[in-house]
Amino acid sequence: RSIIQLFDVSKQYGAGYALKNITLSVKVGDLVFITGASGAGKSTLLNLLYLATPVTRGQIIVGGMNLARLSPEKIPYLRRRIGVIFQDFKLISHRSVFDNISLVLEAAGQPPAVIKKKVEEVLERTGMTEYMNALPPSLSGGQQQKVAVARAVVGDPDIILADEPTGSLDACSAEVITRYLMEYKEKGTTILIASHNTALINSTGFDVLYTLEAGQLAQPGENICAAMNP
Ligand code: ADP
Ligand code: ADP
């Protein structure tokens, strides 16, 4: 069963193609890596999936929703099912760490007691409890990235989109955060990670690996290691 499908998707910025003729599908619960050089189109691919930007051509289906036909008032329903870890974090600088995370649950209409419990849990798991009242600009890049991860998972999304999710973390924190994300995979969450970090790719394993080359898809790689060590 597919949760994400792209049919002949192209994205143009001006005259140039960021993505060209991409067709792929992602199965429910899969961990998918998207790799490729800087500028290959990895971020653009993730951006299209939660309608940060529209496609130029082609069709995208996410969780049964045809994104081209999604009316503006339905976009929040799409985004509530997706947790995004942005490469530049995109935290709200004048709101506390706690508020940055709780906003996700408030938007989903969760009651205050549930919000408090869930936010405290993700803060604890990412090691950010002591910073819950801090404003993001006062934190290091690694700390901000942990908040971004906490915000992405707090709503128990069906899909997590992660752009270099450990790019600002030291090796130890990267391992803690990667293991945390893998717990969501165990629970059935579909995860797409854009990364050119081969250490990360090797440490988590994957179900499918896509390589982008100048906006085009190279042959998908099956996970040979998992097939050999079931
Ligand atoms: P990657 O994530 O693999 O580094 P990107 O998806 O960020 O690649 O970029 C792919 C190409 O699209 C690059 O040439 C980049 O400059 C271009 N691009 C991405 N976003 C925009 C944008 N908002 N406006 C114009 N060009 C863009
Ligand atoms: P990466 O390529 O590693 O994903 P970038 O720094 O290229 O990261 O992109 C960061 C943001 O800037 C993204 O939101 C992307 O859409 C935008 N962007 C990238 N390239 C361009 C560009 N040439 N013009 C305008 N915006 C861009």
Automatic annotation (TrEMBL):
One of its GO terms (biological process) is cell division. It comes from the Bacteria. Keywords: ATP-binding, Cell cycle, Cell division, Nucleotide-binding, Transport. GO terms for cellular component: plasma membrane. One of its GO terms (molecular function) is ATP hydrolysis activity. Signal peptide: none annotated. Residues 4-230 form the ABC transporter domain. Belongs to the ABC transporter superfamily. Part of the ABC transporter FtsEX involved in cellular division. Important for assembly or stability of the septal ring. This is Cell division ATP-binding protein FtsE. The chain holds residues 32 to 261 of 272 of the full protein.
